Amino acid sequence: MRIITLAGIAALSLTLVACNKPAGEKATEEAGTAKSEAAAASTAANTASTDAAAAAAAPTPAAAAAPAAAAGDAAKSAGDAAMKAGDAAKDAGKAAAKDAKK
Question: How far apart are CA 14 and CA 20, in angstroms?
Fold first, then answer.
């Protein structure tokens, strides 16, 4: 959850930077990508949490198997989206720094 929160904060920060300075198109596009990937990561993390709670509340181990597998898949999706958000945020930062030097 910390990674997702940090990715979201980074995406919003970069979006603000892109709006406040005449940053290039690349920085703006990457900030938008980071923002949407952070939102996807957050959604997947919420799904994973819901599925994990369903697995924990299941009356038998057999009944917990499907929600536990779904929670694992959602957690993997959250991690993948968080990595993409981090990469996009890093690219946006580089592009904004490059444009700021001009």
Answer: 10
Q: Which of 79, 70, 80 is nearest to 49 (CA)?
A: 70
Find tokens 């970069």 and name the residue.
Answer: 14
Q: Which domain holds residue 88?
A: 2-101
Instruction: State residue 99's pLDDT score.
Output: 72
Residues ≥6 apart with Cβ < 8 Å to 88: 11, 30, 31, 33, 34, 37
pLDDT in tens, 45-78: 999 999 999 999 999 999 999 999 999 999 999 9
Q: Which tops the pLDDT comparison, 3 or 76?
A: 76
CA torsion sign for 6, 95, 14, 32 is negative
The total number of structural domains that make up the chain: 1
- CA-based torsion, 6, 77, 28, 25: positive or negative: positive
